[in-house]
Amino acid sequence: MTATKGYAAQTKDTDLAPWDFDRREVGPHDVQFDITYCGVCHSDLHQIRDEWGGGIFPMVPGHEIVGKVVAVGNEVTKFKVGDLAGTGCMVDSCRVCDNCHRGLEQYCTNGNTLTYNSLEQDKKTPTYGGYANTIVVNEDFVLHISDKLDLAAVAPLLCAGITTYSPLRHWKVGDGHKIAVLGLGGLGHMGVKFGVAFGAEVTVLSTSPRKEEDARKLGAHKFIVTSDPDQLASAAGYFDFILDTVSAEHDYNQYLTLLKTDGVHICVGAPPTPSALLAFSLIPGRKSIAGSSIGGIAETQEMLDFCAEHDIVSDIELIDIKDIQPSYERMLKGDVRYRFVIDMATL
After folding, report:
1. Domain carrying residue 261
2. Angle at CA of residue 103, ends 146 and 129, nearest 5°
3. Tell me: the pLDDT tens digits for 241-255?
4. 203 neighbors 222 (Cβ within 8 angstroms)
């Protein structure tokens, strides 16, 4: 076993605290890399509080993980010691279902293995995430990281980045399209960057007028304050797509009015309560509302390569692991531009 230092929640009612545990030994197809940085996702807080249910404790969160390879199994062909490497939200899948064969491991019909708060494919061994000093992952779920980019700012690409990249690629967003990004946070700011890089006209929809300056700096072409009825009315029937990154309760019907005929409202945020959806918000314009998760492994590597080519990373604030609880509190208040990343040297 590999002795590992991390931070864990022992129960849903306790704060994160230091916890030593064991990773598996490096097997024939495994890669071990020491973790340099780990991004902080809003879902980390949901999970350690068991707000989505089914929590496995003790729980070591973190699924935006980057670092340097320190060991490889004797049958590994994709990595060598010294390579930069990363792991996102998954560390395995069944490998045999139709979706896995299509490179859609995120939709594995037999149940993929998430990086933490999940079970390995043996359905009994818990997984532990990136708030730790090292990790062991099957090489097929490890990603190559370019040395051209700021490594700390790459970490959030492995969740916030791919969560926004994947739907924009799936719906072939590009030149000539008008896209609205609803919400300007960890997900939204990446949606803006990718939308602009793909050649679309990008508008940020936000309840906060003070975010307009940031939206413009990120490359957004337009900005609409959603609490202003006149501004909303001026955009009726304007957008081909809405990328909805909001995880708080909101009225989908209000935003569906902004779509053109055949427009698509894409949900990547996850509000905690059900929402009423009126049929007549969809029927008159043959509109659709859809959801999207992260991308598969091949698509995530494609995104990382695209980011290296176009110099795209997340806007981050680097933090000490000991400051994780106050950072969570700031995250809940929206007081981060736009993603916390833990410097794991502080563990």
Report:
1. 161-291
2. 60
3. 999 999 989 999 999
4. yes
